[in-house]
Amino acid sequence: MADSLSPTRIQEWRDRHYNATVVDLRLIHDELMIIRIRPDEPFPQFSGGQYTVIGLGNWEPRTSDTQAEQLSEKELKKVVKRAYSISCPVLANGKLVAAHDMDYLEFYIALVRVADRKPPALTPRLFALNSGDRLFLGGKITGHYTLEQVADDDDVILLATGTGEAPHNAMLAELLQREHRGKIVSAVCVRYRSDLAYLDTHKQVVADNPTYAYCPMTTREPENLDDAHPDYVGKQYLQKFITSGELEDALGHPLNPAKTHVFLCGNPAMIGIPEINDGQRVYPQPTGVIEILEQRGLQADETGEPGNIHFEKYW
Question: FAD-binding FR-type domain: which residues (predicted)?
Fold first, then answer.
């Protein structure tokens, strides 16, 4: 075991498996980061909303205060890989960018400290990285969660929880670059304001683009929990954002199913994917966004039947 973890052996494994370099890593806080990774070879053209794979060897160190793991010598030699949606800085030096125009890929990642079945393998190692470190990056970028069906004058609504905002940032950059004529609304639900890593960027985009609205919301700030707080609003969820009329306020007009595409990314409970039972749609409880939107005339994607509600669940 000692020999298998010698610096020489570890470097051999890194040289064998790794094909990319961390060029920038920004810790938003202890459990949230934006990381930029440059592959050794140019990556293929891709669309906003797609994903690729990130990997690190089990021999790499883990950040502190995460669930301990016990690995065999055979397991230590393996590279653990997970799929991550590609994000986008949206702005660089005040100008619009698109993810596929850069020589690096940006990812928005939350640390998983503890998991139910087995210790989390990848994020504790990602959070131990520094700029200049090496890692594995998949050579294929794929996924059907894209803007392919969106017409130039359609309204686009991007609803996310937490780091589910990542693919929506890439979509936003793509829409703005192609001078999309329809209204764009991006709303994200997080626990605390400190979880809004891209807030300043979105404020600038809103200032520069009258057709864009950004609607962040929280669930665990004092004004969410304390009904005596002078600014008390209760817990803010995307479902309520729709049913309260706030979404249509952000759009500036009533929801038009014929000219609207909605993208949902993040917590499956927020999305609320229905099952088909004897030809009937059975929605999960508590009520998710799909049920609310389908009651308003929109239709979720189904196998072989594209709709105008598109979704990507994160676990």
Answer: 15-148
